[in-house]
Amino acid sequence: MPDRRPYIAGNWKMHKTGAEAEDFLWALLPRISGEDRAEVVVCAPFTALSNLVDGSRGSRVKVAAQNMHQAEQGAFTGEVSAAMLSHLDVRAAVLGHSERRQYFNETDEALAEKLPVALTAGIEPIFCVGESEAEREAGQMEDVLRRQVTAGLSKVAAADLPTVVIAYEPIWAIGTGKVATTEQAQEAIAFIRSLVAGIEAGAAEAVRILYGGSVKPDNAAELLSQPDIDGALIGGASLDPADFAALVAAGDAA
Q1: What is the Cα–Cα distance from 155 to 237, expressed in whole angstroms?
Q2: Which of 103, 108, 185, 204 fits a disulfide with 197 by CB distance 3.0 to 4.6 angstroms?
Q3: Could you tell me which of 72, 148, 164 has the C-alpha nearest to residue 115?
Q4: Annotation says 124 is catalytic
Q5: 192 within a domain of the structure (yes/no)
C-alpha cells in the first residue's frame, strides 16, 4: 500500500475576520512546529485569505478557499475565479461542499467544470461528496457516491486524478454531533476508492480520501487508523487552535 501523506484540513465556513485569522495563526503555529508528516490546510472565507497567506509563509500551513467559480471572468456577481485565488497564493479550494450543494444549488455539472479549471491554475481541489440521512436510510449511499464521484471527475485528465483530494462527508454527520462509525466511514471511503479505480486504476492507490463529519480530537486517531482514510475535513473543531493542533498531531501520528 502506498504511503499516502495524511491531509488535515480545517473548514472555517463563515467564521473569522482577517484579524481573527491572524490571531488563530499566532496561536496555532507554535503548536505544530515539530513533526511535519501531515499536510495542514486552513480553508477560510475569502476576506481572510490574504491575511492567512501572508501570516503562514514559511510554515507548514497551506491556505485554501471555500469555493471557486469555473469561469475565467465574467458577469458573476459575488464569485471568485481561479486566477484571483492564484494571485493571492491560495493553493487549494473546497469544491462541492454539501452546504454549497444544499443551500446554493451547486450541481454535479458545475463541479465537473470547476475541478479541471482549478488543477490548470495550480489549485488543489478538495472535492466533497456524501449522502444525506434519508439517502443512507433508503440504501442509496453507493448510488449517490457513484453519481457524484463519476460526474465530478469526468473532465479531470487521468494524469491529474492523484492530485485531487476527495472528502467524504456524510451530510447527516456534519454539524450534528453524529459521527459515522469507523466501519461506516471506512466502507464508504473504500467504495469511493473503487470508483476512482474504475476511472483510472493507477490513480486509486495514490488519491487521498478524507473523512468529514464532526471530527474531533477524541475520535480522530481511530478514524485515521483505517486503511483507506487519509485525513480529515474538519468543521467546528478547526476553529480552536488547540483543538486543531491536536487534530494535526493525530495526522502526524497516522
Answers
A1: 33
A2: 204
A3: 164
A4: no
A5: yes
Q: Is 97 a catalytic residue?
A: yes
Percent of the chain with pLDDT over 70: 97
In the chain, the number of structural domains is 1
- Does 5 fall in a domain? no
Q: Where does residue 212 rank: exposed (0-12), middle (13-18), buried (19+ CB within 10 A)?
A: buried
Catalytic residue among 97, 99, 106, 124: 97
Residues 6+ apart with CB under 8 A from 90: 49, 53, 63, 64, 65, 123
Beta bridge partner(s), residue 234: 10
Could you tell me the residue range of the domain that residue 223 belongs to? Answer: 17-253
Catalytic residue among 39, 99, 135, 169, which?
Answer: 169
Here the CATH number for the domain that contains residue 40 is 3.20.20.70
Q: Is residue 6 part of a domain?
A: no
Residue 2 falls inside a structural domain: no
User: Mind listing the pLDDT tens digit for each residue in 86-134?
Assistant: 999 999 999 999 999 999 999 999 999 999 999 999 999 999 999 988 8
Q: Which grid coordinates belong to 193?
A: 476508492
pTM score, whole prediction: 0.95
What would the mean pLDDT of 157-177 be, rounded to a whole number? 88
